[in-house]
Amino acid sequence: MSEAVTRSATTSPDLLTSLDPLLREWLPRQRWFAGKGRPVTGFSLVAATELLPVTSTLGLYHLLVRAHQPPAQGPGDCYQLLIGVREALPPRLAPSLIGHVDRGPLTGRTVYDALYDARPAEVLLEAMRTRARIGALTFDRAPDTADGGMGERIRAGLVARVVTSEQSNSSIVYGDTFILKLLRRVVPGVNPDLELPLALAREGCPRVPAPVAWIRADHPGTADPQVSSAEDSYVLGVLQPFVQGAADGWELALRELAKGEDFCAEARALGRATAEVHLALARALPTVTLGHAQLDLLVDGMIERLDTATQAVPALHPYAPGLRSAYEALAGLAAEGRTWTAQRIHGDLHLGQCLRSPSGAWSLIDFEGEPSKPLAERRLPQPPERDIAGMLRSFDYAAHSLDPRPPGWAAACRAAYCSGYAETSGRDPRTEPVLLRAYETDKAVYEVVYEARHRPDWLPVPMSAVHRLAASD
């Protein structure tokens, strides 16, 4: 292993003065900005690191900035930005423009999203390769191994390209060898997007690409950055092997649907892959037993979300009693003394979080969980049925994307997925109908609110599930 590189990084205290008016316009337009619909009233700087000194040709800053929006509830969301600085942008970088600076230390310069520029992106890879420490940033990696273990050697000179189809985060592919996922909205603490793949790699689970390297930032106020713990730092990015030629599960399902092809074999294989990951997580990390008290809290949360959703989307009103019965049935079993085992799970599982390699093997990716939920909640042990319910809903969504909807397609995929899961785990999720219905109902209620706010044309998809689930016994 090469020696770690450590160097200080200085930034102007007035840097944010240069960027503030431009970021107020640019940041809310980004797909990964969480505070849409509310104006940005200001920024505060959490951390700033100069990765490349500003010259006549190029400069690079890494920023953690907190965006302040009304109503003021808490300190505001913290975002990771990589800001490139040039005299002028070449035409190839025009889509990445943030703006032209007219105040502060960067006056007269042009600033842009540096992830679209190969040179700044390659700076990040080189820092991970050399295990650099630059200012508040720590770049680390798994040990190199010759036997295909956790570590994989990072070669210098891999050409970088940004992935343009991202939603809540950003990704860079390096020479079809690695992919770096950069988290955009960040919080301090142990992030499951690094924690769980590392645990699965130690278990030798082949269904999740093992982390090769990662980036952290010290939390401001840490007494001694040299000994700061994971709880005191931000996870900013994770580098993993890039599966060349892999098909996204959602796109693959839609492609097969459009051709009129059956998807059951893939759904069954995906069920087996999910079970392998769940079994490995149960071996790697502690499990707990959910009894009456824990189930009461779980059910209370589901009922509260239903009540809030019913207020937000009046179309739910006629179905609310039937949906509530799904949660009450679960509470009834808990009152009778039933218990369930909870463990660490994926937390946001759907077809878009799955990749099928050209060899036909399925992988699960993106273990961040639902970004809107607090980090502590995302790290709680939960019944595996929560993941399974998410995937069942995803098959339903895929089927509704085709008009007219193919009869029985979603039901067949759901059955095949559960059968594949049972083949590997030895436990068929359909033997827990009350638990599975409660989680699927909770997911459908969430989908109703999301679609009503963001994609009204898609609202009939979860409403169809609501109709079915409210009538279920």
Quick overview:
It is built from 12 helices and 19 strands. It is an alpha+beta fold. Helix 3 (192-202) packs across helix 5 and helix 6 runs antiparallel to helix 7.
Shape annotation: globular
CATH class of the largest domain: Alpha Beta
Low-pLDDT segments: 146-150, 222-227
Strand content: 15-25%
Average pLDDT confidence is: 91
Q: Please give the alpha-carbon distance between the first and last residues.
A: 59 Å
Largest sheet properties: 8 strands, mixed
Which structural class do you get from the secondary structure elements?
A: alpha+beta
The helix fraction, in percent, is 25-40%
CATH fold field value of the largest domain: Aminoglycoside 3'-phosphotransferase, Chain: A, domain 2
Name given to the CATH architecture of the largest domain: Alpha-Beta Complex
> What would you give as the CATH superfamily of the largest domain?
Aminoglycoside phosphotransferase (APH), C-terminal lobe
The strand count comes to 19
Number of helices: 12
Counting structural domains, the number is 3
Radius of gyration: 23 Å
| Main sheet: strand order | 1-7-8-13-14-11-10-9
Main features:
single chain, 473 residues, alpha+beta, Phosphorylase Kinase, domain 1, Aminoglycoside 3'-phosphotransferase, Chain: A, domain 2, six-stranded antiparallel sheet, 12 helices, 19 strands, globular
What does this structure look like?
With 473 residues, the protein is α+β, with helices and mostly antiparallel strands. The chain has three domains: 13-115; 119-241, Phosphorylase Kinase, domain 1; 247-470, Aminoglycoside phosphotransferase (APH), C-terminal lobe (Aminoglycoside 3'-phosphotransferase, Chain: A, domain 2). Helix content is 37%, strand content 20%. The chain contains twelve helices and 19 strands. The protein has helices at residues 15-26, 118-129, 192-202, 249-258, 264-284, 292-312, 320-335, 375-378, 385-400, 409-425, 433-454, 460-470; strands spanning 6-7, 42-52, 59-68, 77-86, 97-100, 110-113, 133-134, 137-141, 160-163, 169-174, 178-183, 185-186, 213-218, 233-241, 247-248, 288-290, 340-342, 354-356, 362-364. The strands form four sheets. An eight-stranded mixed beta sheet has the order 1-7-8-13-14-11-10-9. Strand 3 (59-68) and strand 4 (77-86) form a beta hairpin. Helix 6 (292-312) runs parallel beside helix 11. The protein is globular, with a radius of gyration of 23 Å. Residues 146-150 and 222-227 have low confidence and may be disordered.
